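Residues determine shape. Next comes a sample protein:
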Amino acid sequence: MTDFPLPDPTDTDAYDEALKGIVVGELKPMQAPIEIVEYDRAWPGLYEREAARIRAALGERVVRLEHAGSTSVPTLPAKHIIDIVLEVRDSTDEPTYVSDLEATGYALRIREPEWFEHRMFRGSDPTVNLHVFSANCAETDKMLLFRDWLRTHAADRELYAATKRDLAARDWKYGQQYADAKTAVVQEILAHAEAERGQQ
């Protein structure tokens, strides 16, 4: 979400090389333009369905499981992709959880040892980005702080929506370029949330 260790998202050649180092399997460009759609009230229910599948697969190995990203913020336009953040005891200990997630239909797509030992799985029905971190990860806290702030602060929610629409209209080779291009506005909004939290 923030401090992502990839090049400038407008530098596609450098991006190709960087992504080759973290993508599991074949590196594929996007097949269609990024589409931002209006908020869908079905999204929370889709998250709950996927959360139940993950909990059934991993049981007590689930340390924390949350709906994150734009689909977790009522009224916020988003890509039709459910972002889920999962904490397990140790995300580097892949034998303890990867095969069980794969058995439920998730595919491991990204492995980033240098960025909070992040793993990202892709689900297809619905489309899900499942982000896996170790327990008590600071990045999980940031993701949830960002979500909760947007849920209650309309001005920043509108700023984020406008930025997303602007960036989605640009020509990207990879979806992660679009995601990284949002970093500046994400950090600006997080600064608002962190400043208020510091005053409490």
